[in-house]
Design goal:
elongated, TraG-D_C, 598 residues, two-stranded parallel sheet, alpha/beta, 22 helices
């Protein structure tokens, strides 16, 4: 016969304790509120003296404490009023708790294990301001620094009001899917607050960074727009000479490399025809630059390989070895020569378009854009090209490259760094600004005061342009990496998850036996953010990886939620309307000369 347990049931004890605790949590404040309500009612009616402090009596027998009060007064003062106040306080406490749980001001809940304020201190206001003073001689004696002079705003540390900024020696890559905030929260705010010259590449105009910043940047300096494919239908108010830096074999080779990169992917650039076509272009670019000819003459030479003009120019300027190589190609087997020249013609085919060529050849009625002057100004250069623009996007990449190289030269002359720094927003870089050695440039641009932010839609998009090794180099060289929502690559998401790391999670387990219930607590390692959680990042948030710091979760700061957004919105709408008007005007035969400057 089983013996009855000498100990009472642990579960029954727990339930009884919880019931008692719940009664106390409600009864104690309600009793005190009943006493306060009775006192307030007695004072308000003046019909009874104050009662001694007996909250339990006030809750159970209020008529004995205030015998002179009527039944209705007691009901209102010691029952209805206390219950109403208690409910209001409980609701307020619940709201405050929920806000605290999700972050101050209703912000999203901070993810456990992600960087806290102290973990990213070098990116916070105090440290970033001190760094700006050390980097920029013009700020050393300033009593107060504006936030825009200290660094580029990336967002707020999630759940807080602490701003996270990249300094003016950082170089960044942002991988953000379409409509994840890359333009509204990164490109546009960075351009609007840049203290020095700004370079922007883009494949859109209306309703994008171009229209949102055009008016504001016009107040800072001159705005230049290079729009060879008429994305913004901008009047041609500038021309740029791509051969200005092609008077050396290295410079001509870089220019030819932009045409090669714009035409074929990284995986195809090493084959015979691609390399041979690029070599012919570089030799002809060199000849045209040495003789100060327009770049369009190169297309004439490509059309007639037997033309000896480029050979004579190269020899006259002492490039005999280059001339000999060009002669060898021209006099080689016809099948090979024709194949090489046809490849080169395809790469540079955009120069056959007179509207495109006009942006890169001498125009008497418009001003020449000079990169060496631009980098010492506070001007803005908008470089616009369509996706897959071939030779047109090659000119965009070549111009961006020329500006960054001019900035590097100016920084060396100025003691090592540009002050103020130059911001280069390479939006849609994998589509319209394929600079082949951009990963190598990243290793020194930041130290020169040249701050590039390369914006890609995915990691694989970068691999397509620069190859696996090149994209890995770009990723590794970036001191700031911003990852937005919409990451659908499982391998990349898992890589990010591993970079973020693991954290300890407390696990509670309960077991039951004849003697009752026992509880044990243990710790286990768990990913801070699993790959599926990274894929499901909500819009308006981003991950930030900074060199030497823990990964942080950011709340993005779109420009349209900032002070002055109404003015910017109106200016953007006006600029977009102007684009529409110019596009419609092109359908009018009376506007046939619209592409030229007014």
């Amino acid at each position: 016969m089983p013996q009855p347990s000498a100990r009472p049931s642990t579960e029954a004890t727990d339930i009884a304790f919880k019931i008692l605790l719940g009664v106390l949590v409600v009864a104690v404040p309600l009793a005190n509120l009943a006493w306060l309500g009775g006192q307030a009612t007695a004072w308000a009616t003046g019909s009874a003296p104050g009662a001694p402090y007996q909250p339990a009596q006030a809750l159970l027998h209020p008529d004995q404490l205030w015998p002179a009060l009527g039944e209705t007064s007691l009901l209102l003062g010691t029952r209805i009023l206390p219950a109403t106040v208690l409910l209001a306080l409980s609701a307020s406490a619940a709201v405050l708790y929920q806000r605290h749980k999700n972050g101050s001001g209703g912000r999203r809940k901070r993810v456990d294990g992600m960087a806290k304020h102290q973990d990213v201190e070098p990116l916070m206001a105090k440290a970033i301001t001190a760094k700006a003073r050390s980097l920029r001689p013009s700020l050393k004696t300033a009593k107060h620094l504006a936030a825009k002079d200290t660094g580029v705003l990336l967002g707020n540390l999630q759940g807080t009001r602490h701003e996270v900024r990249m300094g003016y020696e950082d170089v960044a890559v942002a991988i953000m899917a379409p409509r994840s905030g890359k333009t509204t929260s990164l490109a546009i705010p960075s351009i609007l607050n840049a203290p020095g010259p700004v370079l922007l590449t883009s494949n859109k105009a209306a309703g994008d960074a171009y229209t949102a910043t055009l008016d504001a940047r016009s107040a800072t300096g001159r705005t230049w727009s290079m729009d060879p494919q008429q994305i913004a239908h901008a009047k041609r108010a500038m021309w740029w000479n791509p051969l200005a830096t092609a008077k050396t074999l290295d410079g001509a080779g870089r220019l030819a490399g932009h045409f090669l990169a714009a035409s074929v992917d990284a995986s195809q650039q090493g084959d015979f025809w691609s390399k041979a076509g690029s070599n012919i272009l570089s030799q002809l670019f060199l000849a045209a630059a040495l003789d100060e000819r327009p770049i369009t003459d190169v297309m004439q030479w490509l059309a007639f390989p037997a033309d000896r003009t480029p050979l004579d120019i190269l020899r006259d300027h002492g490039f005999t070895a280059v001339a000999a190589q060009l002669k060898g190609t021209v006099e080689g087997p016809p099948e090979t020569r024709d194949g090489i020249y046809e490849t080169a013609r395809q790469y540079a085919a955009a120069l056959l378009n007179s509207e495109i060529a006009a942006w890169v050849t001498l125009q008497e009625d418009v001003e020449e854009f000079r990169p060496q002057e631009f980098v010492t100004s506070t001007d803005t250069l908008y470089l616009l090209s369509k996706d897959g623009g071939g030779g047109a996007s090659a000119l965009i990449a070549a111009c961006a490259d020329a500006v960054m190289r001019a900035a590097t030269t100016q920084a060396e002359r100025a003691g090592g760094r540009l002050d103020p720094p130059m911001l280069a927003i390479l939006d849609e870089a994998a589509n319209v600004c394929k600079i082949s050695d951009l990963p190598d440039l990243y290793s020194h641009l930041g130290s020169r005061g040249i701050i590039p932010i390369t914006i890609l839609q995915s990691y694989r998009q970068g691999q397509k342009v620069w190859g696996d090794a090149g994209m890995d180099a770009l990723w590794s060289a970036s001191t700031i990496k911003v990852i937005g929502s919409g990451i659908d690559d499982p391998d990349f998401a898992d890589k990010l998850s591993r970079l973020i790391g693991d954290h300890d999670v407390e696990t509670t387990s309960t077991s039951h036996s004849e003697s009752g219930k026992s509880t044990s607590v243990s710790m286990r390692q768990e990913r801070i953010l699993a790959a599926d959680a990274i894929r499901a990042l909500p819009k308006g948030t981003a991950l930030c990886f900074a060199t030497g710091l823990r990964a942080a979760m950011l709340d993005l700061r779109p420009w349209y939620l900032e002070p002055g957004a109404d003015t910017l919105s109106a200016a953007s709408a006006s600029a977009s309307a102007d684009i529409t008007e110019r596009a419609l005007a092109k359908t009018d035969p009376r506007q046939s000369d619209f592409g030229t400057a007014a």
